[in-house]
Structure formats: C-alpha cells, structure tokens
Target: Aldehyde dehydrogenase
Amino acid sequence: MTSIDYRELYIDGGWRTPATGTTITVHSPTTEQPIGSVPAAAPQDIDRAVGAARAAFDDPRGWSTWHPKERAEALERFATELESRSAETALRVSLQNGMPIWLAEQFEGGFPAVLLRYFAQLMIDTPEVDERAGMLGGTARITRHPIGVVGAVVPWNVPQAISFLKLAPALAAGCTVVLKPAEETVLDAFLMAEAAEAAGLPAGVLNVVPGGRDIGAYLVEHPGVDKVSFTGSTAAGRKIAETCGRLLRPVTLELGGKSAAILLDDVDLDASLESLFGVTFLNNGQICWLNTRVLAPRSRYEQVVDALTDLARSLKIGDPLDPATKIGPLVSARQRERVESYIAQGRREGARLTTGGRRPAGFDSGYFMEPTIFADLDNSATVAREEIFGPVLSVIPFTDEDEAIAIANDSDYGLGGSVWSSDVERAANLAARVQSGTIGVNHYTNDPVAPFGGIKSSGMGRELGPEGLHTFQHIRTVYLPPAV
Ligand code: NAD
Model:
C-alpha cells in the first residue's frame, strides 16, 4: 500500500508551506506500520490559520454576510465533493483508527454530507427575524448572527462525523473555522480539505491545522478565536473550560460517558441482540455514548449474562478493512494498555470475567482486544464507574425499576443510554427518569434533527438540531418603540 503523505497545510484557501519541518507520522493500528504523514502545525501556522479565518469572517462582503441560500449552494458543492471521496474517506479512517469499514462507510463516508445539507436547509427555513409584541409597549425584534471564528478540536474515534457536528452548523451559520484534528487521524482531515478546496469554499472559511494537545491548547486560547467547540476526554474538557472561563469565551464540550442500557424483565433478548451490539461494542468500544453498563433484572440476570457472553464470543475480530469484521484493533498501543489495566482492576476487585479479557490469539500485529464482559459486580466497581473506551461491559443486576434508575443515575456522567422492553411506552416512561442528555428505546441513533450532548462530566452544550446551530450564533434584541 502506498504511503499517503502531505507536505503542506490547508490554510486560507490553499496549500501553504508549514512554519517548521516537524511531521506527524500516522501508524496503522492493524499492522503497526506507518501509513502516511502530514506536517505538524506550529503556533505560527495556527496564527496564520486564525488570521485567515478572522479576515474571512470580517470581510464586509464575505461568507458571514452571505444570504443562507448562497452559503447553502457552497455547502452543497462541499457535500458533493465529500461524497465523491466518501469511499476514500472511509478507507483512510479505517486504516488509521481501526474502525470496521462497514461502519466507516456509514459514519465517516456518509454522514458529513447529510449534516451539511441538513444545517444549510435549516438556516434557510429559519425565519431571519423573530418579532415579539412587548408586554411594556413596543416590539422586540430578535435576530441571530454568526458568532465569529470557531476553534474546533476533535478526537480520533469518529473523526469525520464529529468534525461535521461542528463544521456543518458553524459554516451554515456564517462562521469561519479553524479545525484541529487529533494526531491519530489526520489523513481523512486532509482529504476533507481537498474537498473544501475543490468545492471552492472562499479562502479562510475552513482551515485545517493538525497537532497534539499543546497546539490544541494554543488554538483554544488564541485571541482571534470567538468560540470553541471541543469533543474529547473529560480531563481535556475541564482544562479547556478553565481557559474559556477565564476568557469568557463561549464553549461547547462533548466529553466522556459511562451510559447504561436498562433491560426490563419483558425484553425480547433474541430480537434485541443485534441492536444491543450497536450500543455496546460498536467501533471496538470507542464511542463516547456507548452503553458500557448493562443493567439486568435479577430474575433474568444469568440469561442476560449468557446472551451477552455468546454475543461477545460471536463477534468476528480481524482486519477492519474486511467487511465481515465486527471488532477491529484499538487505536493505539497506549489505548490497549489502558483497557488492559482496567481489565486487571476489574479482576482485582473480584468481578467475574465471563469472556474476553485477553489479546486474541492468532494475530502477529495489531492492538486487538477480545470483547470482554464482567458479571457479578455492582455499580461501585471501578470498571462500572470510569470510562474505559474499549470493548468492555459490566453487567449489573437490579431488583426493580426504581433500583435500575438509581443505578443508571449513580454516575459522574450523563451522555447516552437505552431502555429495552417489549412495551415501548413503559420503556419510554422509564427512559424519561434517566439523568442523561440522550437516551434510546430499543435502539440508539443520533438523528440530525435532535440535540445531542451530555450533562454532568459528559459536558455542556448541544450539537445537532436547531440547538446545535444556535451555539454558533449570537442573539441581538432591538427594542422598537410603541407605534404612535
Ligand atoms: P483527548 O481529550 O485526549 O483528545 C481529544 C482532542 O483534544 C485531540 O485533538 C487532542 O489533541 C486535543 N486536546 C487534548 N488535550 C487538549 C487541551 N488541553 N487543549 C486543547 N486540545 C486538547 O481525547 P481522546 O483520547 O483523543 O478521545 C477519547 C475521548 O473523547 C473519550 O473520553 C470520549 O468519550 C471522548 N469523546 C466524546 C464524544 C462526545 O460527543 N461526547 C465523542 C467522541 C469522543
């Protein structure tokens, strides 16, 4: 396979020579071999990117002043260019982070164009002015305006879809963006930059500057940035929140999770197993909203443990580029060590490991881990409290619905979750009692029309839906006098 190498950075609408010769080399988590490289952005490159985004935003006839329909036309071209690269995008993501290719095709190849079209249309459909008859006489005229230059910092686990949770609403609203991808997944971000260039997005509207946490922190703190949108770990989110608090800079934080799937006593286990896979082991366990705690009624506890154990054993582990693969490698050696240390901790604390817990046999290379299930533990166990970010589930028993809710809510996090039952209304009523930003009934899907985000240590602010658009807008009120 030929190496994918870039020598320049996409800044101000073109490919620019980076300030330094430092490069980021990307390794395949499957072969552990290098697969490509890009220049690492230095602070001077961030300055240049933010300067370009600032100039594009402040241009009196530029992007931020265009009618939503004009921006929609440009974003439609961007969507089309992304679609013509969708297979390559999915391939690059899968090569870089081990995401099974069938999932990469949906999430990474397909979703970005959907999001661009959704937010472009939402801007067109939203009335430009909201006039309210005042209670004290006169009229209040309320308008929304693009918030300015956005610094977007994203992780490696679902890099394209997460980038477009930010880019699509920000660009549709009229903002300009400096995107900092994670070092593990830069090759797909450069393909996105090629699509932006081919679509003719005006210079400075989108800039891509890869680097590690220092360069991310530099971008977050940059005086030319008006709004920060971050997805990543809770630890990094806290630091970013501190910076933005000091600067009084608006910030959206999508952070970690430890969500619960509550299986009620009337759940049809056989019919639910495929969907349960989708909320537990998807993307090798590396998604923030996954339900890594499975709460099972005591009356059916052993049955649930057995069914999940069988499910975990049935999942094909292998090359993520093989369409039959359900579990690919973890993103890095460091991530696998982290997962292994949690598994060791679970054992030390006395949980029963029903399957997994090891590196699978038969692989000469790759950061693979077997899907792993812990049973006979309660919600105080470390593996039930902390985000592991790997294919490790804790199956916790409950006696009645009140106890299930108490366990689900006994978490530092509140991002996703699900309730499973043959009675949809019963499940929906219970779901409403779970303290979480989002929750599913018998499935879980982040639909573009509905707000997504967390409470507690899972973050603040929302992406998707009109709420996700509003985070990239300022509100202005003009008090009009009473008519004479
Ligand atoms: P991470 O926080 O280490 O890194 C995420 C991104 O932030 C990377 O681009 C990194 O370079 C950058 N970064 C790190 N520290 C920074 C700092 N102090 N200032 C500025 N930028 C900084 O997270 P990760 O390990 O790459 O990703 C996994 C985490 O992301 C998990 O905790 C997962 O739950 C979370 N996540 C959350 C969501 C969500 O929507 N809530 C989605 C996906 C992943």
The CA atoms of residues 55 and 198 lie 21 Å apart. Residues 4-255+458-477 form a domain with the Aldehyde Dehydrogenase; Chain A, domain 1 fold (CATH 3.40.605.10). The mean pLDDT is 98. Residues 101-125 form the longest helix (25 residues).
